[in-house]
Specification:
Elements (H helix, E strand, L loop, with lengths): L7 H10 L3 E6 L2 E5 L7 E4 L6 H10 L4 H8 L2
Antiparallel strand pairs: 1-2, 2-3
Helix pairs in contact: 1-3
């Protein structure tokens, strides 16, 4: 399934719906954590995220692409 073009903030909002919390923001990166997950998500606060990076973030969050798209609400 093709990934839509999203900004870093849109991606962070979608991950928040899945229980991820913004731990901190340093410079242009939003760092998110989730209870019970060893992984952290470091999301660049850019207007457009590269599809490869977005796919990697979705994988690290333990989601499928289809689930992420539903969280986006697109």
């Amino acid at each position: 399934m093709n990934l839509p073009v999203v900004s870093g903030r849109e991606a962070a909002r979608a991950f928040e719906k899945d229980g991820w919390v913004v731990a901190r923001q340093r410079g242009s990166h939003i760092v998110m954590t989730k209870d019970g997950s060893a992984a952290n998500l470091s999301i660049p606060d850019h207007k457009e995220l590269d599809r490869g990076l977005l796919r990697s973030l979705i994988r690290r969050a333990g989601l499928e692409v289809e689930e992420f798209i539903k969280l986006l609400g697109k």
